[in-house]
Design brief:
This protein is α+β, with helices and mostly antiparallel strands. The protein is built from seven helices and 17 strands. The strands form four sheets. Strands 2, 3, 4, 5, 6 and 7 form a six-stranded antiparallel beta sheet that branches. Helix 6 runs antiparallel to helix 7. The protein starts with a helix and ends with a helix.
Length: about 400
């Protein structure tokens, strides 16, 4: 009798468990809201258009210290905090970009309503002029917060991060170009994945001198930490959807593994060499060496303050700009030569002419660099000789 009772209880428990599982499966999940459907469609669209990018390094750091991990050439300008630039306790969350010459900056600033926008300021008489809001950026308050500005060396291409309904979530990275005719910036464009995610992504920087890019993201990171990514900036090219599975594309979009982007070992090694060289320059700067410029057999300069001839600091900035242009032109020429091997026959004549023209421009630029270096040396030696 006892055995029958135990069997009955066991059967009852199994039946109850099965009924509970069936009831659980039959619970209808709430239908997605219109906002959720729109967000999913946006995520799917942007994932499918993920840019093909080679990431060469990444490191997790304390968020309060992340700017110090950006290693840029002096020719690329300087990124800083508002508080450091203005020596103030105000605007603790605002960031600044100062151009190479140190005479213009782009900065973020928060108003009393908590809205943050971008401004510019000029350096005059040893002081920064009153900030002027950038026209075309957040004119219609499509963003709640606009921050982390960076301007390319052309003085027209601006990158920044912003929070708004158009983004994927948190801060997204945008770019805009200054229109000289209208004297305002064009409609900002979200630069998409893999740079943006549903987390906060910001401080997008391209060092054209070393041909390296940087940005920060708190995706998959604990509180108060951020991952800084270093990548090779190139013309935007998306992944071939027929060559990769949807899962692979999604992993590229999320930057699941930077090693998966190392498809060109030669390009990777060259980029890592440039990164090492840039870090060496940064170390030299910490040691009091911003650059190495030989005046003669007995005199070598390592900082702008070493120059004695009053106009040589300006001349050295001009030299740095010429060197940056030469590096950019060399990159363009290298891409054109690479394309030559796969270009259609009907494009070869035009491409040949472009390559020859670029080579001529490169030679002329190299001569200008040589002449500028010679001018700086001669002016400096003449000044030192007269003022012994």
């Amino acid at each position: 009798m006892r055995i029958r009772v135990m069997l009955f209880i066991t059967l009852l428990m199994l039946t109850s468990s099965a009924d509970a599982q069936r009831k659980k499966r039959n619970i209808r999940q709430p239908a997605p809201t219109a906002e959720q459907l729109i967000h999913k469609e946006k995520m799917d669209r942007m994932t499918a258009n993920t840019a093909q990018v080679m990431f060469i390094d990444s490191f997790v750091v304390n968020k309060a210290d992340f700017l110090n991990r950006y290693v840029l050439n002096s020719e690329a300008g300087k990124i800083d905090t508002y508080q450091n630039l203005y020596n103030t306790q105000r605007q603790p969350n605002a960031f600044v970009y100062v151009n190479e010459l140190g005479n213009r900056c782009f900065l973020s600033q928060e108003n009393n309503e908590g809205i943050m926008n971008l401004y510019s300021s000029e350096r005059a008489g040893g002081k920064w002029t009153r900030q002027t809001k950038l026209r075309g950026i957040n004119d219609h308050q499509e963003f709640r917060r606009v921050n982390y500005p960076y301007m390319l060396g052309d003085g027209e291409t601006l990158y920044f991060a912003a929070e708004g309904d158009d983004g994927l979530g948190g801060y997204d990275i945008y770019t805009s170009t200054y229109d000289k005719e209208t004297q305002q910036f064009l409609q900002p464009v979200n630069i998409g994945m893999p740079f943006n995610s549903e987390a906060n992504d910001y401080m997008f920087v391209i060092d054209e001198y070393s041909n390296l890019g940087w940005f920060a993201s708190d995706r998959n990171q604990p509180a108060d930490t951020v991952c800084v990514y270093v990548f090779v900036p190139e013309s935007r090219k998306t992944y071939d959807l027929e060559s990769y599975s949807p899962e692979q594309i999604a992993n590229f979009a999320r930057i699941t593994s930077i090693a998966d982007t190392w498809t060109d070992k030669q390009k990777l090694n060259q980029a890592l060499a440039r990164l090492l060289m840039t870090r060496d320059r940064s170390r030299q700067a910490v040691e009091g060496r911003d650059f190495v410029f030989v005046i003669n057999d007995d005199i070598t300069y390592y900082q702008l303050s070493n120059f004695n001839e009053p106009d040589n600091i300006k001349r050295y900035h001009e030299l740095s700009a010429l060197r940056a242009s030469y590096a950019k032109l060399t990159k363009v020429l290298s891409k054109a030569r690479d394309y030559w091997t796969t270009a259609p026959k009907n494009e070869l004549n035009e491409l040949r002419a472009e390559i020859l023209e670029t080579e001529q421009s490169q030679l002329e630029l190299a001569q200008r660099i040589h002449n500028k270096e010679k001018e700086i040396r001669n002016k400096e030696i003449l000044f030192l000789t007269k003022n012994k």
